[in-house]
Amino acid sequence: MGDDTQDFEASKLGTKDYWDKVYDRENNNFNEIGDIGEIWFGEDSVEKMTEWVTENVTCGSSRIVDLGCGNGHLLLELAGEGYQELVGIDYSEPAIKLAKAVAKQRQLDNVISYETVDLLGSDWALQNQFDVVLDKGTFDAISLHPDQEKAKQEGRDGPRERGLFLITSCNWTQQELMESFQKYFRYHSHVKYPTFSFGGHTGSKICTVAFEPLS
Question: 155-167, pLDDT tens digit by residue?
Answer without folding.
Answer: 555 555 568 999 9
